[in-house]
């Protein structure tokens, strides 16, 4: 082996220091030869029973270990903070950066030559990749895989149906008992959400950007081939250490551009934007919010997956998986980007076949010509906001309506179903103070439910704008991530009931019809809301979190410190 193993700065030492590093490993029953001049591979595990999407990861880690051992490496599994999307209050996004710190410092502080990141539920992917980028040793990602498609009363269901079910219950079309049956029918296997939500979006991101083996994104969690992929990834990480193939070799500007184009073709989540900006910030690749719009402008939607389409991740796998999607984009993608298996990205998809054109269309006969992320700007979103055109209603893409303003989430919940609320289908629902500092943590409340009285009239979509996020499983004509957010003093804080809101997606603009003098008057009168807390991590977060258009990382975490640790522990 030509590379000097980082782990030998621990295990290769003579005298007292080496004794201590080795002796306390031997208490686990490892023989001496295991960690002498063998690549030591960390398996960074987000297993937790509080993260149901990742609850099968102990088993997956065993497959990774088999591969590492077979390749002559020494696997050491370690836990990191796990972020369960379905459980954590007020939102997992509040803790993404905290988890990334755990990952970064754990990798750097320990005798690791390479690392396998076990990612699944939404934030577990960006937090692990962000942390690993700040250390930059050889790294491969193994995703946990999507759940099997839900089956409910003769039809396929997935997480996007929660929004439909919720509105059916509110309007009396579905009983609570039926809702209970739907719960069990939807989450019937291990794995993360089965639609193209944020977890699947991020699994596709790691595959398209080159951080995993091909097929990582779509093999169902319950399919035995998921374990095979995990084992093969274990085999491969040992080789990556020998080749000294680091994250910075894979994560080039061109690789980021590939990921953005693929995200457009699959109808990926708006959360992709915020997480990719943060990852780019860690590895030091220049990436701007506008890049997401520019690079996806000519990419149609070729994957017919919920919430933009009809099918589920399981179907995508059987139809040819992400490689078949990427093959359709061959004319757009950068071919030479190196990927985790040591091959150029084109080599990974060149031989892919599509087995079902209803699920993966050709680019010429695309499922939907509209895709990607539209970035709008204007006098209430000076630094930008995002909208997912493929999940929006075409007739609302250019719209003028009167604002119905909710000052915060409690205000929204208290008044949305009030029969006296002055709202009709032409109104624009505005939700403030659900951003990074304001909530805090920017929860997925941006696709707020419609007023009951409009649902009863059969209205299914309205323009909704907020400084929050939307679940990747959500849909509708929703403008999200308004930057700067209301609580940070952005003009969005100044919008009032009855203001005319003008959304023009084609011209990428979002404004309110307000004179400069009135803007100034409101600005002078505006007062920053009180901080929700002045202690602990949340206080640190509120003080240091950057705005959504920059990736919402903590300002002092941007960039990387590398893998060197100059001082020993004893
Ligand atoms: Fe974990 Fe949807 S709740 S991926």
For the largest beta-sheet, the strand count, sense and barrel status come to:
8 strands, mixed
Strand arrangement within the widest β-sheet reads 7-8-12-11-10-9-13-14
Provide the domain count: 2
- Rg, please? 24 Å
Which ranges are low-confidence, i.e. pLDDT below 50, for 5 or more consecutive residues?
A: none
Helix content: 25-40%
Distance linking N and C termini: 29 Å
The assembly state of the depicted protein chains is: single chain
Question: What ligands can be seen in this structure?
Answer: FE2/S2 (inorganic) cluster
> CATH topology of the largest domain, which one?
Rossmann fold
CATH homology group of the largest domain: Response regulator
**Helical stretch count?**
20
CATH architecture label name of the largest domain: 3-Layer(aba) Sandwich
Report what the structure shows.
The chain has about 575 residues and is of the alpha/beta class. The chain folds into two domains: about 40-150 and about 190-350, Rossmann fold (3-Layer(aba) Sandwich), CATH 3.40.50.2300; about 375-530, IlvD/EDD C-terminal domain-like (Glucose Oxidase, domain 1, 3-Layer(bba) Sandwich). Helices cover about 35% and strands about 15% of the residues. It has helices at about 10, 15-25, 55-70, 95-110, 125-135, 160-170, 175-185, 200-210, 225-245, 245-250, 255-265, 270-285, 290-295, 315-320, 320-330, 345-350, 410-415, 450-455, 515-525, 535-545, and strands at about 40-45, 75-80, 115-120, 140-145, 150, 155, 375-380, 380-385, 400-405, 430, 465, 480-485, 500-505, 510. The strands form three sheets. Strands 7-8-12-11-10-9-13-14 form an eight-stranded mixed β-sheet. α5 (about 125-135) packs parallel to α12, α8 (about 200-210) crosses α11 and α11 packs across α13. The radius of gyration is 24 Å and the shape is globular. The protein binds FE2/S2 (inorganic) cluster. FE2/S2 (inorganic) cluster binds near residues 85, 122 and 199.
């Amino acid at each position: 082996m030509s590379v000097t193993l980082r782990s030998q700065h621990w295990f290769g030492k003579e005298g007292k220091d080496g004794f201590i590093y080795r002796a306390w490993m031997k208490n686990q029953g490892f023989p001496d030869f295991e960690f002498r001049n063998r690549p030591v591979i960390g398996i960074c595990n987000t297993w937790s029973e509080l993260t149901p999407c990742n609850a099968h990861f102990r088993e997956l880690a065993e497959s990774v270990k088999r591969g590492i051992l077979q390749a002559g490496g020494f696997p050491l599994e370690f836990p990191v903070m796990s972020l369960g999307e379905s459980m954590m209050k007020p939102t997992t996004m509040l803790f993404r950066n905290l988890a990334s710190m755990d990952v970064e410092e754990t990798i750097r502080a320990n005798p690791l030559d390479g690392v396998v990141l076990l990612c699944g539920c939404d934030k577990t992917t960006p937090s692990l990749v962000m942390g690993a980028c700040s250390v930059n040793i050889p790294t491969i990602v193994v995703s946990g895989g999507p759940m099997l498609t839900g089956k409910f009363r003769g039809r396929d269901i997935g997480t996007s149906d929660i929004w439909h079910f919720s509105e059916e219950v509110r309007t009396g079309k579905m009983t609570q008992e039926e809702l209970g049956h739907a719960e069990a029918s939807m989450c019937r296997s291990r794995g993360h959400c089965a639609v193209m939500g944020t977890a699947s979006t991020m699994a596709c991101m790691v595959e398209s950007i080159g951080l995993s083996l091909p097929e990582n994104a779509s093999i169902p969690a319950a399919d035995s081939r998921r374990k095979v992929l995990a084992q093969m990834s274990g085999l491969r990480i040992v080789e990556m250490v020998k080749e000294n193939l680091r994250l910075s070799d894979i994560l080039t500007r061109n690789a980021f551009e590939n990921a953005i184009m693929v995200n457009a073709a699959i109808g990926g989540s708006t959360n992709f934007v915020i997480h990719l900006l943060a990852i780019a910030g860690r590895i030091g690749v220049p990436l701007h919010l506008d890049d997401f719009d520019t690079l996806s402008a000519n990419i149609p939607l070729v994957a017919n997956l919920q919430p933009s389409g009809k099918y589920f991740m399981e179907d995508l796998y059987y139809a040819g998986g992400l490689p078949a999607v990427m093959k359709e984009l061959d004319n757009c993608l950068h071919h030479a980007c190196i990927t985790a298996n040591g091959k150029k990205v084109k080599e990974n998809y060149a031989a892919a076949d599509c087995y079902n054109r209803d699920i993966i269309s050709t680019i010429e006969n695309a499922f939907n010509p509209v895709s990607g992320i539209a970035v709008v700007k204007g006098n209430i979103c000076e630094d930008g906001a995002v909208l997912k055109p493929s999940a929006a209603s075409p007739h609302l893409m250019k719209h003028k309506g009167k604002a119905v303003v909710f000052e915060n989430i409690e205000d929204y919940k208290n008044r949305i179903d009030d029969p006296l609320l002055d709202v009709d289908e032409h109104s624009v629902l505005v939700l403030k103070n659900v951003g990074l500092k304001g909530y805090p943590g920017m929860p997925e409340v941006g696709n707020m439910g419609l007023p009951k009285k409009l649902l009863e009239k059969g209205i299914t979509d309205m323009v909704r704008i907020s400084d929050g996020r939307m679940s990747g499983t959500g849909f509708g004509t929703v403008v999200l991530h308004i930057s700067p957010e209301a609580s940070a003093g952005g003009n969005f804080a100044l919008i009032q009931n009855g203001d005319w809101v003008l959304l023009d997606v084609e011209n990428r603009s979002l404004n309110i019809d307000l004179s400069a003098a009135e803007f100034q008057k409101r600005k002078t009168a505006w007062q920053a809301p009180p901080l929700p807390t002045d202690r602990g991590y949340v206080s640190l977060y509120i003080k240091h979190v950057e705005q959504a258009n920059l990736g919402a990382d903590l300002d002092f975490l941007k960039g990387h410190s590398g893998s060197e640790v100059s001082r020993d522990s004893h």
